[in-house]
Design a protein that fits this description.
heterodimer, A: alpha+beta, Immunoglobulin-like, 5-stranded mixed beta sheet, 4-stranded mixed beta sheet, 1 helix, elongated, B: mainly alpha, Growth Hormone, Chain: A, 11 helices, about 80% helix, about 0% strand
Amino acid sequence: MNRNIKKSRLSRAVNCVLGLMICALAALGGFAAQADNVQPYQLTIKDHKFSPAEIHVPANQPAQIGVDNQDATAEEFDSSALGVEKVIAGNGRGVVRLHPLAPGRYPFEGEYHDDTAQGVVIAE
Amino acid sequence: MLAALIIVFREMIEAGLIVGIVLTATRGVPGRGCAISFGIAAGVAGACLVALFAGQISTLFAGAGQELFNAAILGIAVLMLTWHNVWMASHGRALAQDLKKAGAEVVAGHRTLAGLAIVVSIAVLREGSEVVLFLYGIALSGGNSLPAMAAGGLLGIAGGAAVSALMYFGLLRIPARQLFSVTSGLISLMAAGLAAQSIAFLQQSGHFEIGTHLVWNSSAYLPENSLLGRLLHTLLGYTDAPTQAQCAIYVLTLAVIGILMLAVQPPPLAARRQVKT
């Protein structure tokens, strides 16, 4: 008896959770295709500095930044404003994808050398 | 030296807090010391591997390897934390009500110990790999500052362990009756925060393109990279510039854990007696 009550409560809850998940997936959409045909902006890391330190991108359009780390040490491209946390290996490359940005300034930094590695994306 | 200390300590806070909370949640469970030590050791080994192969991981899946890897391990951590909370809600409290079965709660906790050890190893792996890369960078650059920087790094790691201890002994001051509710709450919030981080990585790699607009941006007031920001980031899932999808997943995770915990909770003692007669 006790068992049955517990079972039915559990199955109702599982249904409820499944329903929630389906709603969420429907609301958020599935896995969308990647737009990879955008020409990336080039960013170089050398001596723990970004060059160029300012990247101008058009507002409200997706963009990509190709990061080329010419230092022997790894660096983490970090920006909460851009929603990016990406480790670029020493002498390695990486691509940072930017979502359509509202006009404004979006600072980023190299987390392992944040005294020198500072930059900003300007959407306009 | 101070710079190295701060950078390493900042990375260690998250792992430190998670270890502290897991230690509290497994209080009294036999074999937990062994399981959690194993989790930490596996995390450290994993962190070294991830750091070593950072370049290779990055190039997988058309350059999205790092993001997908992070999203996947964070997803696993969320599942393990959910499992623990739901299991404890269904068994731990019920058994604890039955005072004759002293130590029964302990047995219940034993079941999810493996899950929590995995959570610990994931937390250590994620933050640890960044520490390894940073310290390796220091070693490579060499120079006069090397010993000081290395000392700073080691102090930072010790700081992370101190955070664990503070969290653990702080939580233990809470009366035993309420401790279960507190750890359940902390674990739910932590899981929601990790789920939001996981979605952020999928959005970063372009695998989840919906809900990418920022809901708010408080980086000017409370940056996520500050010590307080990191603390709130781990405990509450604070993000200074969350996207719509991150907020949605955060709420959804809390809702799912809450519903499951309520559903599996045994009816109160009075109701059970009625059923029996």
